[in-house]
Amino acid sequence: MEFIGEFITEMVFEGASEAIHSKRIPKYIRYPLTAMVILFVVTIISAVITAGLSMLSTHILCGVLLTLFGTLMASLASKHFSAELRALREEHSAPANEDRAE
Length: 102
What we know:
Number of helices: 3
Largest sheet: none
Structural class: mainly alpha
Low-confidence stretches: none
């Protein structure tokens, strides 16, 4: 049962990841898919940080490690998403700049 759930989740998020970068799919489909992926990542990171903070009172080392791991995940995810947004902005502004040069 776990394998089936993992397979379905992987297919959904892999399909969403491919659809987000595809120009052939309309924006009104890509934007909700992007929001869904971002919300999923934020939820997982928040759960890890919350688990780490709640474990601080009983298991200090485990709580600190989980909190640090969640913080590392958050910083890497924000770096990745900001790089993707920068690339998307450059992609959209490049044709406009080429028209002005001519």
